[in-house]
Amino acid sequence: MRLPSRPAVLAALALLALTSCVTGAPAEGGGITLTIAANAISGGKNSASADWIKQWVIPRFEKTHRDVKVLFEPSGVDDEQYKTKIALDLKARTAADVIDLDGIWIGEFAQAGYIEPLAEVGGAAVDSWSGWSQIPPAVQGLGIFDGRKYGLPQGTDGRVLFYNKTLFAKAGLPRTWNPGSWQDIIDAGTALKAAGVPTPIQINAGSAMGEATTMQGVLPLLAGAGAEIHAQDKWTGASRAMKDVLGFYQQIYGGSGLGDPKLQQEAKGRDKSFAQFADGKIAILAESDYFWRSVIEPGAGIAPMKDRDQIVGYTRIPAKKPGAGIRGQDHVSMSGGAVRVLNPFSENPALAWELLSFMHSAEATTSELAGRTRVSSRIDVNDDVLAGDPMLSYIADDVLPVTAYRPGLAIYPQVSVLLREATADVVSGKSADEAAAAYQRKLEELVGGAANISITG
Asked: How far is CA 105 from the centre of its chain?
């Protein structure tokens, strides 16, 4: 599936006004030049990352590699503009040696022939790198496509169920909640409704929530029903697992009063759900760890909860029933994040791998965090920097081992739109079967027919 070459792409590239460098060019004095590209620029987008590369990575790498000059190619543009630039640079063989990519682009770039597996570019040193033992296999999956490692993950996140312990106590539910099935969630919601909680359960649904519907709702539930949206070169259609997911949505939004269907259709519905959770009006909310560290964070959150650490609980998303999840799991999650890849046309591929692996060392990863409490890709770093945050430690230790990722294919965003529309159908009153049938029809049109769709499982 090659990336299209369209006038619009070239126009977007012109708007970037960014200069590409030929990799491996001789540095002044006859040495070697390596380049790093990222969608980051000092004083602008991802400024902290740009500063880290310029002020920490480059001087330290050059200190131990006296004959190497490292240059940084900054960008500060829309993600799609950056993606277009990198794709065209790789196609023209003028891209940087080490490149930042969104993990969801890996499959698309690999299928286009723009990137190659790390070991094929960097050589034997890739497989023998000691850092692999510090990156959990599930986290490595962010940079894997078709079973091969194309990139090193920079960091990741995880989806869980957050819940209000005070509301749980009011409903006679345990303060330490560990649901083992979807029915356990429904039962908790029913008890909360009986106790007078306005909205017992919030699982993102509908089109207005955007990708949050897919990542916080549909895909974790689908994994809990034992399926992935894309597997063995086929997209999951109106399968039993998909109908189970839509059926779960129907239990929540189909007149039971367990969820608020109007909230799913409002333009600012997700933000409103954050505020309502913080105000004690929503009891159970499916979200990523972003919700904990940036939304309800007591000091600087957008919907701060001063008593967050005492009131808010969190637990893994259960499979439909024990053992029913993907890989036979009892619990599931979804994760995202960025990766760094090697330019397969680098004139100094082994040295480029040295730079890339250096950027993912424990020392570099800790430096990149710059004191921020975030889940990194490395176990040793997480053990250190997350020690004071039980929730993020929970993500690193208990959630990431059971996580999964979106397929890195060019057509995925359009499939995601169809998934959102299917949940919107349920929220607006259609049955799970009707929503599944409509989704199947649209999916067939999108991916080239039923032969590219699986309805088993």
From this structure: 11
**CA–CA separation, 68 and 377 (whole Å):** 27
Tokens of 100: 């930042």
Beta bridge partners of 110: none
* Residue owning tokens 């989704």: 439
In sequence order, what are the beta bridge partners of 331? 318
Q: Is the dihedral of CA 108, 111, 116, 119 positive or negative?
A: positive
195-251 pLDDT, tens per residue?
Answer: 999 999 999 999 999 999 999 999 999 999 999 999 999 999 999 999 999 999 999
Are 105 and 3 spatial neighbours (Cβ–Cβ below 8 Å)? no
pTM for the full model? 0.87
Short-list 216, 134, 200, 143, CA closest to 167: 200
In three-state secondary structure terms, 152 is strand
Cβ-based burial of 163 (10 A; exposed 0-12, middle 13-18, buried ≥19): buried
- The enclosing H or E element of 285 equals strand 282-288
Q: Could you give the residue ranges of the DSSP H alpha helices within 4-74?
A: 7-16, 47-52, 58-64
Rounded Cα distance between 102 and 302, Å, is: 25
